[in-house]
Amino acid sequence: MKKKSEMKAGEIQRYYKAKTDTRENLVASISKLERRNRRLSAEPGEAAENDLKIGVLRADKAEVDAHVAAFEAGRHGVNPPSSEQLETLKTLVTRVEQLTVERRILEEVVALTNKALGTFKEIHPGQTA
Predict the structure, then answer these.
(1) How many structural domains is the chain composed of?
(2) Residue 129 in domain
(3) Residue 85 pLDDT > 80
(4) Which of 80, 92, 101, 117 lies 20 to 30 Å from 71, alpha-carbon distance?
């Protein structure tokens, strides 16, 4: 693993792209769940379930931010993201953005976001925020 000071400019650029795509995925998923809760067709039990998912996604976003802060401060090293990882993140963001906020689709939104988080955690292996 490399600390920021040990990375080449292209590696740092790829890292920040991975971070941006991961956060974008989280924010889009949170937004979709919140919009679903505002719909009149959302049942109370569904809204409560979505609120729980929103809380988990917000915690995941905070964890990503903590990893980035530790990297920027030179406290943690990372595995510079590969082109394949960046492509995976880009694809996942695109898929989440294209999905509607229908109840049956929201499970897929959360699953895609979890895949994006998994990819980001490969860049930060074994680290806790």
Answers:
(1) 1
(2) no
(3) yes
(4) 92
